[in-house]
């Protein structure tokens, strides 16, 4: 075979391979779009049946029954439909789905579905509500998938039955859960419902600085004034992240008893603590700390200067007077710019 013939053969083979590959992509896309369209149509039918249920249509339950064998589609439809209804209507619709055996079907998908199917099934399960669902979610916490475990715990928290703060800390300690935004949110829900248990958990000796910070954040958001002493004590912790969380918590509680602690935090060597303290002073309206706050207009960190200026602007006449004085002081150009910005934004 001549070299020219070989080149032609190779070229034809490559062209054939490319055409085959492109044809495969086209077919795969067609199949995917077809499945998506079918799934969308099924979700529409489920939502229509749920809507019919709310209108008293007796045949609606029968229309939903076949979809119990397709729990993933039903789960997706439930999550779509849930946002459209509230109160008694939501309970009526979810009650009908529970009566069809959907809890068991979703649990099956949690055990044997793909990763996405497991997560969607947990979310849909939480949406159903009821004591049976809470029991199913507690069983889902034993899943080997950490994401499923976290979703199940979040579902319990949303249902008003979160694990205790100490139990949540245990999950992290054993490696069953990893700290995340969702974990912090669940901790806030747990502590909001039981601030006393949150304070007890704070006394544990096995807490890492990160877990102490998460717990302090939750206590600060709980609205429980009994947390003020614990937060004040944590504001002098050796770890800067813990101090920052404690000071932010004091700022959220806005209790006047925190004034002395916040005054000390304004001089903290870590800029995040100083920034949080400045914001807290403004939020709590601690006018008597205005003279202590004003020097932070010269802080080397821009964010601290910003927070100090904003806080002074919230402290009424006393704070505004200090801003005006700084804005007129040519000998302090950094403070002057920070004060001018605060005055301009507060005008």
UniProtKB/TrEMBL annotation:
Gene3D superfamilies annotated for this entry?
Leucine-rich Repeat Variant
UniProt key word Transcription regulation: no
Query: InterPro entries, from UniProt?
Result: ARM-like (IPR011989), ARM-type_fold (IPR016024), HEAT (IPR000357), HEAT_type_2 (IPR021133), PBS_lyase_HEAT (IPR004155)
GO molecular function of the protein, one example?
A: oxidoreductase activity
Q: Do the record's keywords include Disulfide bond?
A: no
UniProt KW keywords? Membrane, Repeat, Transmembrane, Transmembrane helix
What SMART domains has UniProt attached to this entry?
EZ_HEAT
Q: Where are the transmembrane segments?
A: 6-31
Free-text function comment from the UniProt entry: Catalyzes the hydroxylation of the N(6)-(4-aminobutyl)-L-lysine intermediate produced by deoxyhypusine synthase/DHPS on a critical lysine of the eukaryotic translation initiation factor 5A/eIF-5A. This is the second step of the post-translational modification of that lysine into an unusual amino acid residue named hypusine. Hypusination is unique to mature eIF-5A factor and is essential for its function.
- Put simply, this protein is called PBS lyase
Origin species, per record, is Caulobacter zeae
